[in-house]
Structures are given as C-alpha cells and as structure tokens.
Amino acid sequence: MLTQAEADGLMGMTKHFARPPATITIPPGTDDTYELAGLDGREEFLVDVWRGMLRLSKLRFQNRVRTAVILVRLDVDGAPHTNPDGVRLPGTHLHLFREGYEDRWAFPVDSGVFTLLSDPGTTFHEFCAFCRIESPPPVQGVIT
Prior knowledge:
- By secondary structure, the protein is an alpha+beta fold.
- The chain is 14% helix and 32% strand.
- The chain is globular and about 40 Å long.
C-alpha cells in the first residue's frame, strides 16, 4: 500500500496518455480504461471512463496507479456515499486516496473545479485537469 505522502506525490505528478486515442467517446454503457504515464516514464497510471446505461447522467471517472490503487474517483449522479466517520454525501462526490482507508473517503464536489457535471465531455476534461493529465484527447459524440 501507499503512504499518504506517496499518494499525494502521485496525485500531483503530471501524467499523459501513453497511447493517446484520436478521440474519447462516452456513449451510454461506456466502460473504458486508458493507459497513462508520468512524465519521467517511471510510473504507470490508468484512467477509467464509465457511463451508465439507463441513467445517462451517471458517470464515473477514476485515476489509478499500480493497477488497483485508486487515487481519485469522481462519481456523478451515483449512489449516496457514507464516509468511515458516518458523514453521508449525495450521489455526486469526489473520492481521494487516504492512507489506511484507500478510496473510502469522499468529499463534496467543488463547483469551481467541476463546472458542468451534466456534460460528460466537459467533466472528463476537468477531471483530467484535476488529476494533472496533460493533453487529453477531445471527447466526441457525447449523448447528454
């Protein structure tokens, strides 16, 4: 497992798509994973893109490292979440790695960071910026 200092360093590390696709599409039922790399080439990351099939507003974007460690996960219009301290958050919330708890802590979404949660393309690009993923491909053909 990671220490908090290691996780913070990995979250703050600039990343890029290892094999950038020409475009990203996020139609209903999307469940895609893209490989990322740190600029120094020593760390590998993944970014997952998921969208609900029936409720089109339901999205999940997550940034992982070392295959299974979730550093950041944005849930949009999903199920409410209860933190380990009992605080309950609505269906839109942001998970951040916390040592000893992994991704079990979530926080309210900052509307200054994620400005248009109803638009999957905008939200994807804002998630990439939040995770320090440089030059994300354009998002095309999104059904809102």
